[in-house]
């Protein structure tokens, strides 16, 4: 027979077991969170180290090509003087061929285009994301171009710079992922540019796509939609959420046409900033 205290002991044991399980679950959760944070910190550290390495490479690239171009410019006048007699005698074709041959042998045209126009960007965040993504395109040997033919010292304060960087990063990543689908890398192509006029800041990027599917912008930006296999498809959806925070000063257009995916971003100063300027 059970004693009168038996149910009480069973209840106490059950409650103690529940408390123990609750404490164990909390400790387990805290442990998982700690591990996730450590993993994220490690990943962030690796990304930071990679970006620092790319920025150092860019600095070395500038130093190296500045010296090369300075020496090339110094020698070019002597070369022209040496070819002047041939030119005066009417042998223009031979002169042009000699100049072209010498230029090709002295200047690595592909290397010079690697970070073309990045020196016109004077905002660290915008320069850093451009260098990082152009280096990736260059290293993976995808054909690409980048342009920034105006000096950019400031952008509208109406949008958080980190949101702009995030949008630029997402679109570059999408372009790189799509380029990887081409069996022949030479068939891929990515074109991007920064531009500024009347206080506005513009970013444009386009990339060739493997399948010229006729998709609406609503489908492209839908949460979970992706043309990539095993991909979450959250990039353009994230961009749409960012855009919703800046309805009065951010314009975004994108779509697919004639084998290209095109993305345009424009940031406009708000009325207060325009009045201050």
Short description:
By secondary structure, this protein is of the alpha+beta class. It is built from eight helices and five strands; from the N terminus they run ααααβαββααββα. A five-stranded mixed beta sheet has the order 1-2-3-5-4, covered by helices on one side.
Describe the structure in your own words.
There is one protein chain. The chain is α+β, with helices and mostly antiparallel strands. It folds into two domains: 65-109; 115-276, Heat Shock Protein 90, CATH 3.30.565.10. 57% of the residues lie in helices and 13% in strands. The protein has helices spanning 6-88, 92-106, 109-113, 124-139, 161-179, 217-220, 235-244, 271-276; strands at 144-147, 190-197, 200-208, 250-257, 260-267. Strands 1-2-3-5-4 form a five-stranded mixed β-sheet, with helices on one face. It starts with 5 loop residues before the first helix and ends with a helix.
Keywords:
277 residues, alpha+beta, 2 domains, 5 strands, 13% strand, elongated, GHKL domain-containing protein, HATPase_C_sf, transmembrane, membrane
Cα shape: elongated
Summing up helix and strand content along with how strands pair, one would put the structural category as: alpha+beta
Rg, Cα atoms, Å: 29 Å
**Tally of domains:** 2
Spell out the CATH superfamily of the largest domain.
Histidine kinase-like ATPase, C-terminal domain
- The proportion of residues in beta strands is 5-15%
Unreliable sequence segments? 215-219, 221-233, 273-277
**How are helices and strands ordered from N to C?**
HHHHEHEEHHEEH
Strand order of the largest sheet: 1-2-3-5-4
Approximately how much helix is present in the residues?
A: 55-70%
Can you name the CATH architecture of the largest domain?
A: 2-Layer Sandwich
Distance between the first and last residues' Cα: 91 Å
Largest beta-sheet details: 5 strands, mixed
Total E-strand runs: 5
- CATH topology of the largest domain, by name, is Heat Shock Protein 90
In round numbers, the mean pLDDT is 75
Number of helices: 8
CATH class of the largest domain: Alpha Beta
GO molecular function, one term: identical protein binding
Transmembrane segments: 12-32
Domain Sensor histidine kinase NatK-like C-terminal: 160-267
Protein name: GHKL domain-containing protein
């Amino acid at each position: 027979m059970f004693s009168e205290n038996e149910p009480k002991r069973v209840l106490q044991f059950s409650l103690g077991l529940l408390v123990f399980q609750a404490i164990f679950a909390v400790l387990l959760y805290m442990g998982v969170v700690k591990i996730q944070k450590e993993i994220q910190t490690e990943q962030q550290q690796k990304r930071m180290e990679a970006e620092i390495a790319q920025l150092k490479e860019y600095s070395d690239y500038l130093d190296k090509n500045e010296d090369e171009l300075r020496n090339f410019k110094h020698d070019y006048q002597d070369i022209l003087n040496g070819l002047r007699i041939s030119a005066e005698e009417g042998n223009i074709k031979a002169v042009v061929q000699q100049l072209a041959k010498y230029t090709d042998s002295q200047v690595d045209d592909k290397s010079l285009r690697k970070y073309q126009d990045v020196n016109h960007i004077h905002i660290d965040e915008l320069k850093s994301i451009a260098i990082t993504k152009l280096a990736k395109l260059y290293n993976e040997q995808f054909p690409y171009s980048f342009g920034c033919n105006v000096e950019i010292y400031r952008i509208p304060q109406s949008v958080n710079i980190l949101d702009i960087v995030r949008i630029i990063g997402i679109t570059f990543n999408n372009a790189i992922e799509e380029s990887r689908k081409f069996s022949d890398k030479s068939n891929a192509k990515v074109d991007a540019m920064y531009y500024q006029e009347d206080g506005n800041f513009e970013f444009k990027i386009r990339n060739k796509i493997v399948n010229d599917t006729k998709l609406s912008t609503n489908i492209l930006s839908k949460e979970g939609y992706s043309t990539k296999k095993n991909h979450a498809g959250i990039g353009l959806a994230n961009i749409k959420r960012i855009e919703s925070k800046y309805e009065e000063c951010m314009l975004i257009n994108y779509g697919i046409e004639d084998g290209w995916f095109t993305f345009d971003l424009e940031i406009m100063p708000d009325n207060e900033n325009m009045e201050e300027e």
